[in-house]
Amino acid sequence: MASGTLRREGGPLGLLYASLGAVIGSGWLFGPLNAAREAGPLSLGSWTIGALSILLLGLVYAELGPLVPRSGAIIHMSHIGNGPLLGKLWSWILFFSYVSVPPVEVMAILAYANNYLPGFVDPVSGLLTLRGTGVAILLLGMITALNFLVIRLVLMINSAATLWKLVIPFATIALLLLLSFHPENLSVGIPREGLEGMFVAVGNAGVIFSFFGFRQAVDLAGETKNPGRNIPFAVIGSVLVGSLLYMGLEAAFLLSVDPGALAKGGWKGLSFPGVTGPFAALAVSLGALWWGMVLYADALVSPAGTAFIYLTSAARIAMAQGETGSAPRLLSRINRQGVPWAGLLLAWILGSLFFFPFPSWHRLVAYISSVTVLSYCLGPVILLQLRQAMPELPRPFRLWKAGILAPLAFVVSNWIVFWSGLATLRFTLLALLLVLLGTLSGWLLSGRKKGVSLREDWGLSHSWWVLPYFGGMWILSELGPPSLGGRGVLSFFGDMGLVALLSLLVLRLALRATVPDSEIVRYMRELSEGPPSGP
User: Fold this and answer.
1) What is the reported pTM?
2) What digits encode the pLDDT tens for the residues 390-415?
3) Which of 80, 201, 224, 517 is deepest in the core (most CB within 10 A)?
């Protein structure tokens, strides 16, 4: 296939809609019900915590994005200050965090479609059937094929879908509150003891998952003419609009449910006929059959639009992996339309595999939340490394009080990983171990340099801090509360305090182990002047 270059055709609204299009997906269709079951009325607090957490991270990436104006920018960032090993390891964490989202959105489409075309989802287990798995792979392939259009058309399609995706949920909020308003629902009991459920819902009920798309604008930095203006606008704007939308949806859901439906099992036992479509089922139960039909149509548009734009970014992430040497150079190939075609195909192939081990929306969301937040954790570290090495570097957007807010963002990121539960963390760490072993195998088989030790080639002196980081998170989760799968040695909030202390210690170690300032300056110059060759 002929080679080409990326096209800088993305404007401020195109990037804003790219982030918003990723933020507003299946999360609004399922998240409010799952959060209500987990935390009852306190689920409003869950969305508030999620919004503030993502806003913190969004501000970090609003500064970082314009400094690395390349598509797949976050991959290049991961190679800046922590040595080749961590750059390679984090690049795969990032890739999997992107490539795993489109399958979730496709599963959401089939879950809703199962109400009028049965056979995609098992009604008892909620898992994809064999037929559903085949259709899911085909549907993911069709969405992938649309991404072979030039970026201008990709962003146009996404912008049109995003406008629809904004109007329908906001209209749903107004309609539900108009048809049914029961403030007494806010006094119905909380499913878990105390405030634990409110925090747990952030990690595994789809709350934090729903906000993840803000980073799409950063990943398209190489395809916009004014990244210094457009990226902060898109990142911060998408977080603020998304926060307003999701908090409104949760409030509307809590206030519009018939109190009789809560009389027996409370929020934990809340269900609807056609539970795979809670908002549509709720609208129909309130007599708005016509709006239920609109919501079933939106259940195709919203998740499909999010899957579409995530595949767009996943291809750029894979391309950047090829550019930095974290993956085969083939992935950096671009066709005449400016599309990284090899990365797109890889995203479809690997994305299809996620239909098999986690074939339900709720089961996959918790794992993605943990992996994706872990991929975000490196952002605050890189921001402080760049402030330390290049304090005079012009910054189109400068994070206020970065010495306080960046460490706080790192702490909050690790809290979200902690709230996702021990089982999720175990899976995440196992996946990282497999990636590490694969990277080691590749070095031994083909990348080994004569006379250069593994310690020197991988820059282990700059990345060793991840051992106490991952090890400490695992130990604290293992000793944590039973509600998160731990042994109950530590209380929920006591463990949160220890996670915060561990985070600040690890951040200090990471900054001490940073590569020399001269290497960071050299690599940043390479990013601005020509194709990166790695640190």
Assistant:
1) 0.82
2) 998 888 888 889 999 999 999 998 99
3) 201
